[in-house]
Design goal:
- The strands form four sheets. Strands 1, 2, 3, 7, 8, 9, 12, 13, 14, 15 and 16 form an eleven-stranded mixed sheet that branches. Strands 6-5-17 form a three-stranded antiparallel sheet, with no helix packed on it. It has a two-stranded antiparallel ribbon with strand order 4-18.
- It has three domains: about 290 residues, no CATH class; about 110 residues, no CATH class; about 60 residues, Arc Repressor Mutant, subunit A (Orthogonal Bundle), CATH 1.10.10.410.
- The protein is α+β, with helices and mostly antiparallel strands.
- Helices cover about 40% and strands about 20% of the residues.
- It is elongated and about 95 Å long.
- Keywords: ATP-binding, Ligase, Nucleotide-binding, Protein biosynthesis, Transferase.
- InterPro entries: Asn/Gln-tRNA_amidoTrfase_suB/E, Asn/Gln-tRNA_Trfase_suB/E_cat, Asn/Gln_amidotransferase, Asn/Gln_tRNA_amidoTrase-B-like, GatB, GatB_Yqey_C_2, Gln-tRNA_amidoTrfase_suB_CS, Gln_synth/guanido_kin_cat_dom.
- Heterotrimer of A, B and C subunits.
Amino acid sequence: MVAEENSSPEVLAQPNGVQYEAVIGLEVHCQLLTQSKIFAADANAFGAEPNTNISVITLAHPGTLPKLNRKAVEYAIRMGLACGSEITRHNVFARKNYFYPDLPKGYQLSQDKGPICVGGGIPIKAKDPETGQSYQTTIQLHHIHLEEDAGKSIHDGDEWATQLDYNRAGTPLIEMVTDPTIRTADEAGQYLTEVRRLVRYLDICDGNMEEGSLRCDVNVSIRPKGATNLGTKVEVKNLNSIRNVMRAVDSEFKRQVEVTESGGRITQETRTFDAATGLSFAMREKETMNDYRYFPDPDLTPVHISDDWLATIQSQMPILPTELYQKFITHYGLPDYDAALLTDSKELADYYEAVCSHTSNYKAASNWIMGAVKGQLNEKTIRDRQFPISSDRLASLITLIDDGVVSQTAAQQVFTLMIAQPDHSAAELAKTHGLVQNRNTDALQSLVEEVLAAWPDKVAQYQKGKKNLLGMFVGEVMKKSKGSADPKLVNELITKTLQAT
């Protein structure tokens, strides 16, 4: 069926007059940045040779016993505190039974009845797909629970067999489950963007979707607009980017509308998303809770979160992006655009504050970071803190401009030289390369008089009221000085000379 011309992808109107809306829930898995796995001492590291970060516990040898990683618990609590969740004090792990080759034990250790964090929400900004207007809303969380990751099945490494890499098996995860209150692909994308920003600020996950450390499953159902009952949900997996999450939402929504309108029935199933075609394909019927046969793990003792332990974690919480955004506006006096861009990543925000510890020209620091500095960076270099020049060196360049030693134009050249020659200061490079501004009044006055003498007709026009010619005179003097003249001083000298003429 075809949507009406002006209807949005998330609200499709059909020829029979029925309008459908999407009901979306997200399950986001975040790999925690602990040094070891959640129940074993194996290294928790990406990129190692297959099946090297493993042990008898990971491989489920008989007689081995798991032991819970304390740091994984603390990281989960950090995320719960950041989201305003209630922290569960008495925690029990359960065995979630299913038989996939990448799960050595035949079950996954997870939390069933009592997740470590309950409720809470994440504020986002999204756009109305019909009007294009921005609005704010909060995506409500159902819970956050701790669990272990499975290994990785590799289907394209051998022509005849599936290869298994157990390095990832046992990696600590938090799974963040939203309530089914998301309505549009943009809301889903903005929520996932905010989750990635939060885990990076909290330093509990690197948020790298390409490497699989942040993964998202999407649950989509449809219902007539205005209805309150939930339809049959379909889970879409294999989503490795925020853009693909949004594409999968739109694609699955449209597919379900077409199936319903053609008289078909939506099946509760798991589907995989093909990023090349933008379509999803059925993998298997969705398991139910009974299929997993949950029961408390007999090898793990319950974990109690004491008042003192919780208070210690709270005291170590870093400043969150929303708080930092307000600080950048109130303390540093930045406009909304600057504050939003600089707090987009913790690394960029930290770098900005480091620059501001060496200069009081906060707006200039923002301009340089959003412009020249960010032009040298990509997501990876920001995450790895590979800034082109150190914070104190950038601040020293800003000071040279504020003191009139170099012009704004010359400063761009100095910046490039500072990247190429990290052992030299901004002042040294400006002097060595002849970029220091000429503030010699007598020498500049001579250049002013030469320019005015060369353009008598323009001087006459200026005297008759064509004041915009001042810029031309300044430009000509700057040319004669080969860019070394202080433009502010040149402006003053030309104005004074013309007034005396």
